[in-house]
Design goal:
single chain; about 170 residues; alpha+beta; Aminopeptidase; four-stranded antiparallel β-sheet; three-stranded antiparallel β-sheet; 7 strands; globular
Length: about 170
């Protein structure tokens, strides 16, 4: 079955939340408590907030589908003019049942193209240090680690990497 990528619409918000939750549980189940993951999903993937985020003029959210099933999504934002990176990759998640099928690469390619079209010459993202799969993925895509920091994740302290790539 082919992969279709399209611009998200507000009605995609529940499917985005479903994919995010499954991805977080699979990627971080041995890193942070399940309650922490559930709190992050409830806050960061609130359906009403997602609907608003999908409609932002300075952002693009893409949906990846196989048939009528949403299997991944990504969102990039054009940064403020004072931001050194020029843009931010805010979210990129693929349902764990679909990992290693090239979906993340396809979404990332399309989002990087969109950012270039908007004049961004670089992109920045943050990823938990303990997410080995995501860090290997971003490194293979040319994102170099430029900073590490401690971050409060809903009451748990975690290590976070900041990565950048020129476009």
């Amino acid at each position: 079955m082919t992969l279709d990528v399209r611009v998200a619409v507000p009605d995609d918000a529940p499917a985005v939340r479903r994919v995010a939750r499954a991805s977080w549980l699979a990627a971080y189940d041995d890193v942070v408590a399940e309650e922490t993951i559930e709190a992050a999903i409830a806050d960061w993937y609130d359906v009403a907030d997602l609907r608003a985020s999908i409609g932002r003029a300075d952002a693009r959210m893409l949906i990846a589908e196989r048939g009528d099933e949403v299997v991944g999504f990504g969102q990039a934002l054009v940064a403020e003019p004072t931001d050194e990176a020029g843009a931010e990759l805010a979210r990129l998640y693929v349902h764990p049942d679909r990992w290693n099928e090239g979906i993340g690469s396809t979404l990332l390619d399309r989002l990087e193209d969109w950012l270039r079209e908007r004049g961004a010459d670089g992109v920045r993202l943050a990823v938990l240090a303990d997410n080995d799969a995501a860090n290997a993925f971003y490194e293979s895509r040319g994102y170099r680690r430029v900073d590490s920091r401690e971050m409060d994740l809903k009451g748990e302290t975690v290590d976070d990497y900041v990565r950048e790539k020129g476009l």
